Amino acid sequence: MLAAACTSGSPAPGAGTATGTTSTPADSTAPPSPANSSPTATTPATPAATFPLAVVTGLTNLKANVSVAELRDLAGKGTLVVPCGVKLTAPDLPAPPASSACVPADKIAAALVAGQQRIALLPPGLVQPATKVLSIRGKGPFGMFGPDLFGDEQARAMDYPVKATTAPGGTSLDASWTAYDPSQVWTMTNLGSLCSDRGAATQVVSRGRGWDWVFEGGTARYAAPAVVDPPDHEPYRSVQPVDTGNAGATPQIIKRSDVAIADHECPVVPDSTWKPQLGTTAVFSVPEAVLPRWRDTLGLDVVYLAANHMSDKGVAGIESTLRLIDKYKIPRTGLGRDLDEAIEPAYVQVAGLKVGFVAVNDVAGVARADADTAGVPWITERNIREGVRRAKAAGADLVICNPQWWGGAEYHDDLWPTQKRQLGWFDKAGCDQVIGSGTHVAGPLLVRGPAADPNVVLVSPGNYLFGQGWWQETQEGVILDLSFRGKTLVNVRLRPTVMIRQARPALLDPQGDGRYVLQRMWKYSTTPPAR
Which part of the chain is the Capsule synthesis protein CapA domain (predicted)? Predict the structure, then answer.
């Protein structure tokens, strides 16, 4: 045992069920101490009880899961970082070399920040955004869908194989470090631009594949090596995705999450009046037929609609969008018959919390909502403040703000000065997390403090389904996967995707062809220091 503007042209140049066994606080009727309460190693520990250990690595490590066999191998080599004061009860790992020393549990996050490729065992109460959780390897593609302390509800309910107890006579562990209550853990996934016209419409109408083919994507690889950081000047190189099967795996990532949200960018019209965009004109819409797929296949809980194509079909298109989405009972925000409706937040209930969503836009080409004009709310300090105020007045415990923003131009991977100023407005208004969209390329990701209440800013996840096949950056995107403990953000994961035939989102192996979009994102992103 171990002890221890969305065109087909080119971008401008320059541009809750318990899992396993858990620790139990001395007073079982009281909630566990918060993980962000700055514990110290001298705090008296709860008498030894079995608790799970999360398997964690650095945030930028491309690795997404780990097998028990890998843990055994790492332990035998002495490269598995193990917390002091812990005695493993499962699995049975080989004793480390004599030269291998344990690391104080509250110092492991700092060790991973310094060495992003290292893998560690960590008491669950110390998991934070600087320590990306690795799920236990499952039977899904790329090892997905295995046990995961901070994964979706199904993953949390699986028998978790890594367990420990406090080592007799060892360093005391704070009770909050070992506490784990799966009923307080929840996940949220976010999709990139979702408008299944153009490429998807071509496959459905001209090729006769049907909407199920579009929305039930599986996995993909590239026919040839690609480019990690494609240049923002001609020639714009594209990739050739090859469908590798596993149909339905991509929507399962979204549907299995506790909360799934998406950026929808174009009007929804009745099936009988829909005319697909099969050419290059940048006027888009989708039929009502996509809405059952949003609800049942993707499992969307909220759509945010403050996007620059929402008035492509005029006021009638705005009204049909609102009417049809409401018909399928999918909460929405960011579009209305006037500003009062457009700025009204959407809400979901999860893990005993009420989460509010506020959407705004700054991209030209769409009707700007006002007192008597249908359209989308603009990114102004006043509109942001009012949307957040309404959410909090309605009892929202968390407010997620969803801007569609360019900062001056499309197709850039970095954060521009205008966006930095707008981000200041979001912070001042009280947005807890900012998840943006609109540039049609992925990145950057900013994981920020304060340490006790970390937050994330994703400027854009790129395209999920938007029919832009002329450039590698617009073909690729990421599914943002966030995990919370109550109101506190504790884990950030990115799941890379690519559009097959500009129409069918498919998952990429993050350590294979998914590395291109992930490594490109990290170029301009900021990662958090250890708490």
Answer: 233-468
Q: What is the pLDDT of residues 276-289, one digit of tens each?
A: 998 878 899 999 99
Q: What token pair was written down for 330?
A: 């999918």
- Residue 331 and residue 149: Cα distance in Å, rounded? 28
User: Are 301 and 261 in contact, with CB atoms under 8 Å apart?
Assistant: yes
Nearest to 162 by CA among 276, 68, 243: 68
Burial grade of 254 (CB within 10 A; 0-12, 13-18, 19 or more): buried
Between 381-393 and 417-429, two packed helices, what is the crossing angle to 10 degrees?
30
DSSP letter for 34, please: P
- Which regions of 106-162 does DSSP assign to beta strands (E)? 119-122, 131-133, 135-136
d(CA 250, CA 48): 41
Evaluate whether 115 touches 21 at the Cβ level (below 8 Å): no
Residues whose CB is less than 8 angstroms from the CB of residue 270 and which lie 6 or more positions away in sequence, other chains included: 287, 288, 320, 324
Determine contact, residues 262/298, Cβ cutoff 8 Å: yes
Burial call 415-440: b when 16+ CB within 10 Å, e when fewer: bbeebeebbebbbebebbbbbbbbbb
Tell how far CA 495 is from the center of its chain. 8
pLDDT category, 39, cuts 50, 70, 90?
very low
Q: Are strands 504-507 and 488-500 parallel, antiparallel or unpaired?
A: antiparallel
- Confidence at residue 8, expressed as pLDDT on a 0 to 100 scale: 43
Residue 8 DSSP label? S
Q: Which of 62, 42, 99, 74 has its CA nearest to residue 88? A: 74
Please name which of 353, 23, 350 lies closest in space to residue 181, comparing C-alpha atoms: 23
Residue 235 to residues 192, 467, 472, 513, 520, Cα–Cα distance (Å): 25, 19, 11, 21, 18
* DSSP H or E stretch at residue 403: strand 398-404
